[in-house]
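EI: anyone free to look at a 408-residue chain?
SC: sure, send it
EI:
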Amino acid sequence: MSNLTPATGEPVVEEKPGNEPEEGLTSRALRLRIRQQELLAELGVLALQRTSFADMLNHTARMTAEGLRAEFCKIMEYIPAEKRLLVRAGIGWDEGVVGKATVGADLDSPAGYALQTGKPVISNHLENEERFRTPGLLVEHGIRRAMNVILQGDGLPFGVLEVDSRSEGEFGEHDIAFLQGAANILGMAIEQQQYQRKLQAALDRHQVLLKEVNHRVKNSLQVVSSMLHLQANAVGDPAVSERLMEASTRISAVGRAYNRLAYNADYENIDLVAYLREVIDDLEPAVAPCKIRLEAPSEIQFAADRAILVALIINELVLNAGRHAYPDSKDGAIRLQLIPSDEETVSISIRDDGVGFPGDFDPARSKRLGTRIVHALAGQLGAELVKQETTVGTHYRLVAPLHFSPAD
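SC: here you go
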């Protein structure tokens, strides 16, 4: 077979007198062709199973060497900054080759030629090779024949798949077909890996921007809360001061959620228990000397925007208990209990042992701002807020779905 020019787009095959096409396959050659197809099928299944990229490289090297009955195989990644090919994975090579050794990526290198032209290269007699220089790595390992095919990536070539052998014999066009088949399957895995890397980079960037927004919102809310607090202390009217303090604590509760969002890896969800502990820390000075007792599991994952609604409801009910539950003795307790009722809901109990509401009090008809707020927030949360019957004090129970959308 004569040496083909680069313009033909065909494999560059070493010229050798008497290299005629096979007219028939021996039983041994037929078994090899069948095994090659089985190996390609196995490799395709591994790719579809989303095998890790490193494992996919190693499996490809091993299966390619087996399919071509070669002692060596390597997968080389093109490093543009160095204009060389780095051995990323391989089989048969001495220790220290994989991950460290490189070969030239110019047109005078067999692998470089395959990379830059996209044409397969067969060199059956490296000791007599005149078209390309033989890489030192092959000389050191006593390689006598080699094949190279390009590995495509996402838009740009990833590198080269090369198989090498010390034994006598010849690689032919059937072998190139198998090698290219393996390269095509690995190329799909490379594209997927590169796409996932770009997607993860975009997601990381999105999270950074979102955290920055949450951080700025939190800071803005903190400023507003502080201004209301200062105004409450300076206004000189106890009734107005009390209303300003209520507004300050409401805004502070929202700011706490944004503070957690700004440093939370999962920006859509937060730990409801940890968040409410921080809300309680803010509330305790406002209801002192009353003590707030929290009983809860170690963690409850909850949508961040809905956790804010829960915190605002608790904020209103706890402040109200702190102001009115113990008029004669301020040394009382306000108890919060969080119980995951099932896999769908969480039950939140807020109770005290104080004087309770007047006998004729009807929460549904109350015109108090706090009462209207908590019922409006419960509706927005998709929760049920019920005033429990009790002989002592006041007891509210909030039953909220763990997952809820307005369409539910």
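EI: The two ends are 72 Å apart (CA to CA).
SC: 👍
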